[in-house]
Design goal:
There is one protein chain. The chain is an alpha+beta fold and 112 residues long. Helices cover 21% and strands 22% of the residues. It has one domain: HIT family, subunit A. It is built from two helices and five strands, in the order αβββαββ. The relative contact order is 0.22.
């Protein structure tokens, strides 16, 4: 069971800012920006590379939730970044697909 599955099951505490039947959103415990949220599907998908065609609606839902929580955090006007890491070379640390929402400061390009 992954760390995120344990959070979803309420075995590990987290600061949850949104939850619905398909996703949960929480603050990252190692934030890389003043606002750093994780949008996590309740369905365990290891990484984007392993998502299937049947996951299309869920993937779209994750992006809509990312935009919603970004607006709730006051990032709608100034901008925010959405990141999905896929594999260890991309910085993936938990093998459970999740969307990072980062903002609250100027985010330079290219990242890391």
């Amino acid at each position: 069971m992954t760390l995120f599955e344990r959070i979803i099951a309420r075995e590990i505490p987290a600061t949850i800012v949104h939850e619905d039947d398909r996703a949960i959103v929480l603050h990252d415990i190692h934030p890389q920006a003043p606002v750093h949220l994780l949008v996590i599907p309740k369905k365990p998908i290891a990484r984007l590379n392993e998502a299937m065609e049947g996951d299309e609606a869920l993937l779209g839902h994750l992006l809509l939730v990312a935009a919603k929580v970004a607006r709730q955090e006051g990032l709608g006007g100034t901008g925010f970044r959405v990141v999905i890491n896929n594999g260890p070379d991309a910085g993936e640390s938990v093998p459970h697909l999740h969307v990072h929402v980062l903002g609250g400061r100027s985010l330079h390009w290219p990242p890391g």
